[in-house]
User: Which sequence fits this backbone?
């Protein structure tokens, strides 16, 4: 097939340009004309070769460098799954190179009765491959399910490109028919090879389907807390992958006298971990006991290096409380943090609730509020240097634009230069400016800011200037905004206020009860005295002579 060509002239070289690629036209002479009969020229390019037929004046593209790729392992002759059967009736005629890991060679024996290569009627090569550098015209046959190995014939070409083959294929005349390439298959689940295909597929413990996760940081060598002790006596003898942030490696030093790894008798590795990727070793795991030493009893286990992690085939400990140790890190103490939340690198965490003060209200700190004559300016020269979280109806973030004097409820507003950090920035330093009459940045100082995901906290130093204050929020100030007073209300103080209030109430109730009891007691005594008073004395008169009645005392 002819290609459109043109020459670009120069004194020492000429260039050949086709519709598909560009090659340099080189001659031993200084000039080379296309129609010259006296001189012969050849094409040379840096990456591709162009064929030159000087007699026919025909320039052909080398198929070893100009082809389309086919990368479908389902075309393997060993693939007998035909769901969604392939059909090459819409294949464009042209040169193709097969890049699938199933293999590039077209099978040269009949896949009898079909149902191979991901199709019903597989197409195979009825012939032999050409030697290096040669091109062959060959016949490809479709194998029918009725047993006919050459139901349809197709004339194709195959070229040996010294290292790989290319095929000039034509569309099939029927469906479902498709060309076969290669004979390998992907390794089945749980198995692996160097390229993921046969041959050489072997059981691979590193694959997720072949191991169980162990996610318990309490197995850490650094953990000496044995509450709710770990016991591995019921552990299945299968492969395990420790995934906790405490670490994946099994400790190789004896936790002397036990009481480590969240158990009484920790199990450690008496040896070394495998250092070469994709290697498996047999190892001895020892029980450390406060009474039997560092290796009594012991268990035979296996360890495989999976590159970024190890997996372990563990044996049951057959006794409690015994457990395998993994890793050496422990969670950061309360109020501290690190990139993982575990050691090493734990540091003070300003985002932790007990590590910052809550600055509530403070609505007049807004950049939208101007100081009035009746206001008492907010004064942060009395502020305790510390971390603060802001909570205000007018906004929770520090103001980041220049502020004139008498804004933000103070005489000398303090605003921040730069932008707020993102969470990955952690704690950052930022410059803040205090505004004065003639200068928006009369005094410059440094604060710290930390992005806590859903809020920011600020490390605010006490100001050195009286009636200077940090600006927070940009929303308009409303007269009915809560907490109009300029005072700090710390979240940690609220529980104490509640406790004191409850105690006062209890004391008042106790006093009231005591008083009521005293009143009730007095009332009862008074009532008893009244009841015991004798009636008034009235003498009995008989015949004009008073008669006194004497009470007789019975013996």
Assistant:
């Amino acid at each position: 097939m002819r290609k459109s060509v043109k020459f670009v002239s120069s004194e020492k070289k000429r260039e050949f340009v086709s519709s598909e690629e560009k090659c340099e036209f080189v001659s031993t002479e200084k000039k080379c004309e296309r129609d010259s009969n006296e001189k012969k020229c050849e094409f040379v390019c840096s990456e591709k070769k162009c064929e030159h037929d000087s007699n026919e004046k025909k320039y052909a593209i080398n198929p070893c460098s100009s082809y389309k790729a086919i990368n479908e392992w389902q075309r393997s002759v060993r693939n007998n799954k035909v769901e969604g059967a392939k059909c090459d009736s819409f294949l464009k005629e042209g040169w193709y190179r097969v890049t699938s890991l199933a293999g590039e060679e077209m099978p040269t024996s009949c896949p009898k009765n079909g149902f191979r290569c991901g199709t019903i009627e597989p197409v195979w090569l009825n012939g032999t491959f050409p030697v290096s550098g040669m091109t062959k015209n060959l016949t490809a046959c479709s194998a029918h399910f009725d047993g006919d190995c050459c139901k349809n014939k197709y004339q194709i070409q195959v070229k040996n490109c010294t290292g790989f083959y290319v095929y000039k294929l034509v569309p099939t005349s029927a469906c479902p028919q498709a060309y076969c390439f290669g004979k390998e298959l992907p390794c089945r689940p749980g198995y692996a090879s160097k390229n993921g295909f046969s041959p050489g597929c072997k059981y691979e413990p590193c694959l997720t389907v072949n191991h169980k996760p162990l996610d318990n940081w309490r197995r850490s060598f650094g953990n000496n807390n044995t509450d709710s002790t770990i016991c591995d006596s019921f552990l299945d003898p299968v492969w395990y992958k420790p995934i906790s942030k405490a670490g994946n490696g099994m400790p190789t030093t004896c936790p002397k006298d036990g009481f480590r790894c969240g158990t009484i008798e920790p199990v450690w590795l008496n040896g070394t971990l495998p250092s070469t990727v994709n290697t498996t070793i047999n190892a001895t795991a020892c029980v450390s006991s406060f009474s039997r030493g560092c290796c009594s009893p012991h268990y035979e286990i296996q360890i495989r290096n999976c590159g970024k992690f190890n997996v372990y085939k563990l044996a049951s400990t057959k006794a409690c409380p015994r457990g395998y140790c993994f890793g050496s890190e422990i969670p950061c103490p309360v109020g501290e943090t690190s990139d993982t939340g575990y050691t090493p690198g734990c540091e003070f965490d300003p985002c932790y609730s007990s590590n910052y003060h809550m600055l509530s209200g403070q609505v007049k700190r807004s950049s939208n509020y101007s100081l009035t004559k009746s206001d008492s300016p907010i004064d942060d020269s009395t502020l305790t240097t510390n971390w603060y979280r802001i909570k205000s109806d007018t906004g929770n973030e520090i103001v980041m634009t220049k502020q004139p004097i008498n804004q933000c409820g103070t005489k000398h507003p303090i605003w921040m230069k730069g932008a707020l950090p993102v969470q990955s920035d952690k704690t950052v330093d930022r410059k803040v400016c205090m505004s004065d009459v003639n200068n928006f940045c009369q005094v410059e100082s440094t604060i710290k800011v930390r992005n806590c995901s859903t809020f920011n906290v600020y490390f605010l130093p006490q100001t050195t200037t009286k009636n200077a204050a940090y600006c927070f929020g940009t929303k308009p100030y409303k007269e009915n905004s809560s907490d109009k007073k300029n005072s700090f209300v710390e979240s940690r103080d609220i529980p104490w206020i509640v406790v004191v209030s409850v105690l006062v109430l209890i004391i008042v109730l106790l006093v009231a009860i005591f008083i009521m009891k005293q009143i009730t007691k007095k009332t009862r005594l008074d009532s008893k005295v009244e009841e015991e008073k004798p009636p008034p004395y009235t003498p009995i008169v008989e015949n004009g002579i008073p008669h006194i009645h004497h009470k007789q005392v019975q013996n």
